[in-house]
Structure formats: structure tokens, C-alpha cells
Write a structure and sequence with these properties.
DNA-binding; 6-stranded parallel sheet; DNA-binding (chains A, B); homodimer; 6-stranded mixed sheet; LacI family DNA-binding transcriptional regulator (chains A, B); alpha/beta; 15% strand; 12 helices
Chain lengths: 330, 330
DNA sequence: CTGAAAGCGCTAACAT
DNA sequence: ATGTTAGCGCTTTCAG
């Protein structure tokens, strides 16, 4: 006497009907006599039967697993986590499950996980590309892919990004409007499209009067060091622009350390929790990760449903939130 | 001419071997002649064949999908997100994928998602129980379940929690050591085991001298209001203890609003990003969500491998981090 | 060392 | 309205 999980066959046997009738009832088809349906339901209850979606999917015509993959930089980073939550909510509304993975900017992991998801027959993939060539994905795995946060290299597909160039330019113009003429730039990984676009926005606003710049900052510690060096350098800027929250945080620490937090202005790209509770509160160009997630999910579901138009680039507006640090006069 | 995804049969045909030989090569069995294996590998490459893990799992003896489910309060909350990341890292090391879901404290969602995961044949489940009866899970779904963060009601299973009672008691004793005698309590959802345990710790440290208390605070706004009311009440405490970061944040705002942040001491349970950059920096009882995630994953994998001992309760130590707000004298 | 046949749990196509 | 048969892509069992 085995204690396997019950199958449709077991249900059919105890209900005294055929396998196919059980299948019909379980799938909610209406062409079943009420009394038979009732017997099937009773058997399902008593055996605690649960359908096997894997087996079902294998035979079904549409071959949908109702599962999507979501690959982000780091599911524990606030931006990624907010985006994740938005994707999950859209998926839940459609009864779709979400497989997640963190890439840590590692292209090998990007490829490995994309393949693992493909082998698991996820119906599609939402991906924050690492920046390496993502060409293997769309064509290779045959999965519908929507890119989010960054534009991919070597691959085409719907892409959901923030208005990075104009958002950054707006931030820098905001500083200029306060009278600043020497505005320092502190940027993250240079190979990422976001970093490059935000740098472009910085340059666009400043023209030939660009200030000192440090690139390829990885973490708050790097950023803190770089900001201290910049402010102690030969031509210290009166204001700073940072391209991502990790860098912004390091700069906040640097300004505190130098007791310059009330004399050097700061605008950071990407909002972060408690920015409004710091002294001074930090002015940011806020992204809208929830909307990015919703939008990416919507685009992916359209593709999964068969929409086959050309790749779309959807730009989600950013918002300058003046809180204090960006409104310090020169 | 159809453009299906290639199957093992297609590979076998182009390699000129039998289906079973392909299966052997794909599964890394060593009992295949080198030249046949080479032909198979070539065919796999040229067709871009990818095995179908669902079909494989269906026939396999162990019936493992190498997928686990992770159900948390809210994947975008810093605590949950950190825990998620730790689980993911443990899973990745074993080539296991993670399905995630946010429960928002909703027992219906807990049940629905647990069943959805069971239907997808996840090998196990890590769950932060909502507090409602979780009895349906372990027995019902037949899945190995490990509980995390909170102890379940009506269900047995390995459980990984913080040292909530002693952590809270330590925090309150810390305040007492600064001379405080009237210490207010601001707590989250009362039906959660964490909230109750932290309240118990608070009471244990204070004995009969417990101060004013507000329970069932849901969000920072509630907490802010409650703190303001408490400090304006007839017997305002000189120090506050909060049971979770959402409440702590609201209290920080309240103290600022009343300009009491340097005269009313505060220790919060659960650390949060930037707590050290506030003025004054916030003293907390830090949990270790990463370690909790690692531990829960390890326990789940043991269960999946067949370990069948009695339910274990694993308590992860907390750490008091004095930063300033908890060291204000009376 | 290799292959042919059976069957995992389910649904599609075709009876009846 | 119900049942029967075949087969999804794969691994198992058992034969060569």
C-alpha cells in the first residue's frame, strides 16, 4: 500500500467515472452531468487530489506553464525589490508565478539563469541586462524577453527604462539654477547604459563647463573616498551629481565627514528610503520602479499572448524631488 | 516544416543514435562510447537542444523539480528582501530555483500560493506564516515546509526565528541602564508571534514597572500618531521601545516633529538602512535576516534530502547596536 | 555499451 | 454527455 500523491486515475476510480470526466471537471468544463461532477468533486476532496501542472502542460496545446522568470541585479536592493513586487502583483492578477534570480552584474549568471529558466519552460523573461552581450537570449532560448532598467547590448526586445538623459540633465539644471557653475560628477559602472545616459544628461546640461568627474564607482566606500578626494582637490566643485543611490550614500557620508553637508549641494539619481530624514534631506531624481515593473510585466504578457510588433522602448518619467541638499546656494 | 523546439528524438535522429543514448549523454552518464557522445554533443549544439526538465521530472524516480517556494510578507521590504537573497544564494549553490510570493499578512493568499506551489511540484517551501492557522500546509500539501521569522499556528515544522524575547529584554535593559524608568512600548500586529515575543521581552525587563503601551500599529503613520499622543499624554515616558522598523520610522518622525529626538531615548527592534545616518543615529536590536535565510534554506534542503527528525526551532541571535538614540540619558 | 518498449499524469482527437 | 486511445518529452526497465 503506497502513499503516493493521488492522480487523476485515482480520482476516477473512487468516483466511478472515466479519467477524462475527471479532467473535464478539474478543468471546469461545463459539459458534465451535475451528479457525475458532484461525485468527482467529492473524490477530489476525500483524496486531497491536486492536479499536476507539469504533466498537464506537457500535453496541452498552448504549452504554457504560467510561470515567468525575473532576473535583476540583486533582489535585496531597494530598486530591484520594488520592481520585483510590482511584477509579482501583475503576475498574481493573472495567476502567474514568478521565478527570481540575482545577477550581481555577472554576464555568466545572466546566461546560466536564462537557460535554466528556459529549461523550466517559463513562458517569458523580464531581465535587467548586465551590459554584456545579451544576444544569446531572445534568439537562443526562444523565450519572449522584456528588458528593464537598462538597454541590452546585441539583442532586440521591448525595453522599459527611466528617462535617464533628461532626468539627469534636469537635476544638473536644477543645480545651475541655484547658481552653481562647478558641478562634480560621480558615476557608477561605466559599461551600464544607465550610467552612460545619466552622464550624457549631465554633459548636456553643462555643455563645455563640465566639472570634475569620477567614473566606475562600485560601492558607497569607493564613492565616499572619491568625493573626499574631489572636494580636497585643486578645483573643488560647489555641487555634486551622483548617478545611483549607492554612490549618493557614499557621498552623503563624505560630506558629513568633511562637515560640508550644508555647503556643498547634492542631487542624486534614484531615490532611496529615508532620504527625506537625513540632514539635510537629500534631493533626488526619483525613478518609479513600481511603474517600471508593471509596464515590463504588461509588455511581457502581451508578447506571451502572441503580440508580434517591433521592439518597443518605453521610457518611464523620473521626478525631481527637492528636499534640501539640492537647494543649497553656492 | 515546423520550428518546434527540438526534442531528444530530434537530437537522436541527427546524431544517428538512439533516444536513450542521447538521454545518457545529456545526463552525464559515463557509459557511452566517446565517439557517440561526441556526435550527440554536436547535434545538441547544432540544434540548440535544451532538455525539458518538466518531462524529465515526470518520469524520474526522485521526482524532484529542483525548485522551492519562498513566501514572505513582502518581497520589497528590506528584511524580507535580505532573507530572500540569502535563500537564493543557498539555492543557487545547489542549482535550485526559487519561486517567490508576497503574502501581505493575508492568510488566504498564504493558502492559495502554497497550493499553487504544491501543484507546480516545488520540492519544498520556506514560509513566513501570516499568523492564521497554517495547519493545512504540512499535512495537506505534503510538502516539506520550513517556517521563518515567525512561529506557525496549528502546524509543526522546522522554524527559524530571531531571539525575540531576549533581544527585546536586552534593549529595554539597555534603556534602564541609562537611567530610564518610564519606557513606552509601541508594537506592531499583536497576532504575530514576533510582536508578542518582543512584548514579552519588554515586560520581562521591566517587571511591574511597565510603561505606557500602544499595540497593533500598522504603518509609520499610525506609529507617528501614537508616539505623539503618548508623549503628550499624562505620563510621558522618557524612553521608547519599538518592535519593528516600520514603527521605529514613524516614531523617529514623531520625535522630530516634537523636537524631542535628543531628549527621548529610542531603541527599535530590527535594523534598517541608513539608521546610522539619522540624527541622532538610531540604536537598534539588529536581526540577521541573511543568516535566517541561510539557516532556513539549509534546514529545508535537509528535509528534502529525507531527514525526518522532529521539528526543530532554531533561534538566530540578535545584536544590540548602540548608535546614539538609545544612549540618551534621562 | 546500446537500444526498444513501457509509462510518468495529463489532455487532444476521436469515437460512442 | 461520456469514454477510449494516443502521445507530450523524457527516464526507466529490461533485452540484446
Amino acid at each position: 500500500m503506497t502513499s503516493h500523491r493521488p492522480t487523476m486515475n485515482d480520482v476516477a476510480r473512487t468516483a466511478g467515472v472515466s479519467l477524462k470526466t475527471v479532467s473535464r471537471v478539474v478543468n471546469g468544463e461545463t459539459t458534465v452531468a451535475p451528479d457525475l461532477a458532484a461525485r468527482v468533486h467529492a473524490a477530489v476532496e476525500s483524496l486531497d487530489y491536486r492536479p499536476h501542472v507539469g504533466a498537464s502542460m506537457l500535453r496541452r496545446n498552448d504549452r504554457r506553464t504560467r510561470t515567468i522568470g525575473l532576473l535583476l541585479d540583486d533582489v535585496s536592493h531597494p530598486f530591484s525589490a520594488a520592481l520585483h513586487r510590482a511584477v509579482e502583483d501583475q503576475a498574481r492578477a493573472r495567476g502567474i508565478q514568478v521565478l527570481t534570480g540575482s545577477l550581481d552584474q555577472d554576464p555568466v549568471r545572466e546566461q546560466t539563469l536564462a537557460e535554466a529558466f528556459a529549461e523550466r519552460q517559463t513562458d517569458g523573461l523580464i531581465l535587467a541586462p548586465t551590459g554584456a552581450d545579451s544576444g544569446h537570449l531572445g534568439a537562443h532560448t526562444g523565450l519572449p524577453v522584456v528588458f528593464v532598467d537598462r538597454t541590452p547590448t546585441g539583442a532586440a526586445g521591448d525595453t522599459v527604462v527611466s528617462t535617464n538623459v533628461s532626468g539627469a540633465a534636469g537635476a544638473v539644471r536644477h543645480l545651475i539654477a541655484q547658481g552653481h557653475r562647478s558641478i562634480g560628477f560621480l558615476g557608477g559602472h561605466q559599461h551600464l547604459s544607465t550610467t552612460r545616459d545619466r552622464h550624457r544628461g549631465y554633459l548636456r546640461a553643462l555643455g563645455s563647463r563640465a566639472g570634475p568627474a569620477v567614473h566606475d564607482l562600485h560601492d558607497p566606500t569607493d564613492a565616499e573616498r572619491a568625493a573626499v578626494a574631489m572636494l580636497r582637490g585643486p578645483h573643488p566643485p560647489t555641487a555634486l551629481f551622483t548617478t545611483q543611490s549607492m554612490v549618493t550614500l557614499g557621498v552623503v557620508r563624505a560630506l558629513r565627514r568633511l562637515s560640508r553637508e550644508r555647503s556643498v549641494a547634492l542631487v542624486g539619481f534614484d531615490d532611496f528610503p529615508l532620504a527625506d530624514l537625513l540632514e539635510p534631506p537629500v534631493t533626488v531624481v526619483a525613478q518609479d520602479p513600481a511603474r517600471m515593473g508593471r509596464t515590463a510585466a504588461a509588455a511581457l504578457f502581451e508578447r506571451i499572448e502572441g503580440y508580434d510588433g517591433p521592439p518597443r522602448e518605453i521610457r518611464i518619467p523620473t521626478t525631481l524631488i527637492p528636499r534640501g541638499s539640492g537647494e543649497l546656494p553656492i
